[in-house]
Amino acid sequence: TLMKPRVLQLGRLLPALEARLAADYDVTLLAQQADPRAFLAARGREFVEAVTSAPVGIDAALLEALPEVRVVSSFGVGLDRIDLAAAARRGVAVGYTPNVLNDCVADIAFTLLLDVARRASEADRFVRRGGWLQEKFPLATRVSGKRLGIVGMGRIGRTVAKRASGFDMEIRYHDRNVVSDVPYGHEASLPALARWAEFLVVAAAGGPGSRGLISAEVLQALGPQGFLVNIARGTLVDEAALVRALQDKRIAGAGLDVFLDEPRVPEALLALDNVVLTPHVASGTHETRQAMADLVLENLRSFFERGEVRMQAPVQ
Ligand code: 8YV
């Protein structure tokens, strides 16, 4: 019988994915080793594959500790924690899971947008604490027909735009590149987009060069009637500036699925009624996580059968 290829799994994955991995490969879980550093030093060269996830990633030092690894398969679309340049230098293939999560991530963008504008979570808290028996709930902000600015017109940005058109929203976007195959207006300047927009949804990739893109200046431009929604990466937003803007009511509210230092959320946000907070769950449906798991396995299988993963991460 053939020996199963040796796979190093860097962090925990869905139980169903772990079971399917273990059926086809000889899997070792790095996160389970008492001393991961010592383990890597002693046995790092035994592995030909590494499986990771978007939040865990794989950096240059870890790649170096795995000199025989030829393929990395990541659960997620985000590549900000994967050192793509280091992988490319070594000729390591990097598989990831784009497209299959576009719909669910865009759905959460709209969940957060509608929730914060219409004060749905706040209203729920109000009913639960018996507030309705004492007073009227305050009015909220209309969503339909409003101006939506999208930061990052990639796969997810476009899917957000599709949903927004169902709400008769006017759409413009900011992106490093002018995207030729969408009918929406491009704003070359992010503050200009924020000034125009009543809702600003962040759907850009994280990683080098994108840190703090949503700066104090951008938030100031969004203004006291403007709402921010972030379903991309916490690193894209100047979180301290966001907290201050929310506290001082210099923006109207925010819906956030991602944060700078997950799972830690700034204490100050917990006290505010004009924010809706979710724990990085935009892709977290049974259907989408299953599709992502399928693609993680497919990327590995394809690498062994054809020498390339099915969805190769672009080399930046
Ligand atoms: C995570 C994500 O992969 O795809 C991404 O980039 O951030 C998420 O889908 C997911 O939370 C699994 O950890």
TrEMBL record:
GO terms for cellular component: cytosol. Keywords: NAD, NADP, Oxidoreductase. Signal peptide: none annotated. Residues 111-282 form the D-isomer specific 2-hydroxyacid dehydrogenase NAD-binding domain. InterPro entries: D-isomer_2-hydroxyacid_DH, D-isomer_2_OHA_DH_cat_dom, D-isomer_DH_CS1, D-isomer_DH_NAD-bd, NAD(P)-bd_dom_sf. PROSITE patterns: D_2_HYDROXYACID_DH_1 (PS00065). Residues 34-309 form the D-isomer specific 2-hydroxyacid dehydrogenase catalytic domain. One of its GO terms (molecular function) is NAD binding. The keyword ATP-binding does not apply. It comes from the Bacteria. Belongs to the D-isomer specific 2-hydroxyacid dehydrogenase family. PANTHER family: 2-HYDROXYACID DEHYDROGENASE YGL185C-RELATED (PTHR10996:SF178), 2-HYDROXYACID DEHYDROGENASE-RELATED (PTHR10996). This is 2-hydroxyacid dehydrogenase. It comes from Azohydromonas caseinilytica. The lineage of its organism: Bacteria, Pseudomonadati, Pseudomonadota, Betaproteobacteria, Burkholderiales.
